[in-house]
Amino acid sequence: MTDTNAHVAVIITDADRRLIESYYQSKKGKRTPPAHAKREQLPPGLAKRDRLPADINGEPLAPDLERRLSPLSSSYVRFRVGPDIVLMERRTRVMVDIAYGIAP
User: Fold this and answer.
1) What are 4-49's pLDDT values in tens digits?
2) Strands 76-81 and 95-99, how do they pair?
3) In this structure, how many other beta carbons lie within 10 angstroms of the beta carbon of residue 84?
4) Is residue 48 a part of any domain in this protein?
5) 99, β-bridge pairs
6) Does position 89 have pLDDT exceeding 80, yes or no?
7) What is the CATH number of the domain that holds 90?
8) pLDDT for 37-74, tens place per residue?
9) Do the Cβ atoms of 63 and 54 come closer than 8 Å?
C-alpha cells in the first residue's frame, strides 16, 4: 500500500552545510572578481517559506560544489545570495531552506 500523504523534506543537510562552508573557506582570501564585488543580500526578515523577491538573483553554486552536494529534484535549485545559501522551488521561488552566513 502506498501512502499518498507521505511528505519528503527538502532541506540543506548538515553534511551539505559542512561541504559548502569548507568550499567557501578554501576560497577565502582569493581576489573577488569585479563583477562579484558587490553582492546581493537577503532583505531583513526574509525567512523559509517566503518567496525570494524577483529583483534578488543571487548566483548558482559552482558546478564542482553542486556535484558534491545531495542531489535535488529538478524542481529545486540552490543559490548563493551574499553570504547565505538559499534552497528554493525553481518555479515559485519559495525558499524551503536557508543556510545563513555560511558562504562569506
Assistant:
1) 555 567 899 999 999 999 999 988 755 444 444 445 678 788 889 9
2) unpaired
3) 20
4) yes
5) 85
6) yes
7) 3.10.450.160
8) 445 678 788 889 999 998 888 899 999 999 999 999 99
9) no
Residue 9 lies in a domain: no
Cell numbers given for 49: 517559506
Instruction: Tell me the residue range of the domain where 65 lies.
Output: 14-99
Within-domain flag for 8 = no
As given in the structure block, the three cell numbers for residue 87 are 534552497
What's the Cα-to-Cα distance from 2 to each of 5, 6, 9, 73, 104, rounded to whole Å? 9, 9, 18, 20, 43
Does the pTM of the predicted model rise above 0.85?
A: no
User: For residue 55, how far is the Cα from the chain centroid?
Assistant: 16
The three cell numbers locating residue 5: 500523504
List, edge to edge, every strand of the sheet that includes 84-89.
59-60, 76-81, 84-89, 95-99
Residue with cell 540552490: 78
